[in-house]
Amino acid sequence: MELTLLGTGAPNGLPRPGCPCAACAVAVGADARGATAVLIDETLLLDLTPGAAFAAARAGHTLGGVRQVLLSHPHDGPPVEVPAGLPQPGRVPDGRELTLLTGHRVRAVAMDAPGTGYAVTGPDGQRVLYLPPGGSPAGLEEGAVESYDMVLADVVRRPDALARLRAVGAVGPTTDVVVVHIDHDVPPGAELRRRMAAAGARAVPDGSTLVVGVYEDVPDVPRRTLVLGGARSGKSVEAERRLEAFPEVLYVATGGSRNGDTEWASRVSAHRERRPGSWRTAETCDLVPLLKDDGAPLLIDCLSLWLTDSMDAVGAWDDAEWADGGERELRARVSELTEAVRGARRTVVAVSNEVGSGIVPATASGRRYRDELGRLNAAFAGECEQVVLVVAGQAMVLRG
Fold first, then answer.
1. How far apart are CA 278 and CA 167, in angstroms?
2. Which positions ≥6 away from 295 have C-beta within 8 Å?
3. 118, 96 Cβ separation under 8 angstroms
């Protein structure tokens, strides 16, 4: 099958009309996007949008051969004009299947939000899933569906939809995931491409023609990533975002509960509210066994608290204990941790504080912690395919 994306934006397009936000301000040229509409083999049109005929012409195609027009979501505003010769748009009831004379079969997929998804099987047996904006398939069961060759979905706003598709096997290692319905939630251009690559998806310009089943050089999701940043920089959000499109993540909280500390409890609660409900949580600093085990992706938040726990255990805050074997024992713990990262087979995203760029701590123990955290970060980063520094909520890739 051949798909032409006449538009890849949200229903209001990008930039949104009259929107003063920074993302809309820079959404120009190749980063400007019309409302999403997909032309399949020049015979099936999914979503009729304003200017679809002109968009097809710009992409070197025509709507003259379209035999079926299907809508995936309710359209706000005035009715869209149907170009002359085009069939009237309609929607297929959930669960029903439509067979076209061209040999394409279209099955309507129920959503957990208003709208209809469409699973399209081409004459050659290739399978494509198209989801409406803000939608995720409802009632999926593991093993109930085969893996799709291509998925077009609103990955930015609904990464959990991709996680659910992966959980049931509908998205596999060879599935080409393309993001559509792109709004101003993420700055366009390099930042959008970076975030989508971290989720195992890609963004393409309006007018792109995609051949289903053809290999695309999409960057692999890094197996080991270290996310660095200062206090309140957004490093934890960045780390969580990297795994929210994957199911059954194990979130490892190294800070403990700190009974009686209301400020800490508030922080923990905020982190917990952000995390998808399918994630599991383990409160532990015993990271080596987890890194050695196979299993679901691991999110460690954070290494700086792991270091605090380790320094407590070896008596690193006391100069005499530090000199009398504490330093040697801490080095051994860090070495054991980095060796476990080197051998890890599961996906790992770890968070750590970057504290060496501020003022020099006034105490010897404070300076010792700063120095040891710098050494730990450098050693851990050396075992990671990707290292990211987050400053003011903006992620800068240092490696990978």
1. 10
2. 250, 346
3. no
Residue 365 CB contacts under 8 Å (≥ 6 apart), including other chains: 316, 317
For the four alpha carbons of 317, 319, 324 and 329, in that order, the dihedral sign comes to positive
Confidence of residue 260 (pLDDT cuts 50, 70, 90): low
Q: How confident is the model at residue 269 (pLDDT cuts 50, 70, 90)?
A: low
Rg (CA), the chain: 25
Tell me the HSE value of 336 on the side-chain side, using a 13 A CA sphere: 13
Q: What is the pLDDT of residues 175-198, one digit of tens each?
A: 999 999 999 999 999 999 999 999
pLDDT, position 381: 97
Mean residue pLDDT of the chain comes to 91
Instruction: Read off the pLDDT band of 216 (50, 70, 90).
Output: confident
Q: Which of 61, 181, 184, 271 is catalytic?
A: 271
In angstroms, what CA-CA distances link 201 with 10, 20, 143, 192, 332?
A: 17, 28, 22, 10, 39
CA 140 – CA 177 distance, rounded (Å)? 18
For 57-96, b/e burial (b = at least 16 CB within 10 A) is eebebebeebebbbbbbebeeeebeebeebeebeebeeee
Spatial separation of the C-alpha atoms in residues 303 and 135, rounded to whole Å: 36
In the chain, the DSSP E strands lie at 2-7, 37-40, 44-46, 68-70, 97-99, 105-110, 116-121, 127-130, 150-153, 176-179, 209-211, 224-229, 250-253, 280-283, 298-301, 348-353, 386-391, 394-399
DSSP 31: G
Largest CA distance in the chain: 87
> Which of 154, 131, 155, 171 lies closest to 241, judged by CA?
155
Give the separation between CA 314 and CA 154, rounded to whole angstroms: 49
| Phi-psi region at 213: left, alpha or beta (left = phi > 0; alpha = psi -120 to 50) | left
Q: Is 61 a catalytic residue?
A: no
97-145 tens-digit pLDDT: 999 989 999 999 999 999 999 999 999 999 999 999 999 999 876 655 7
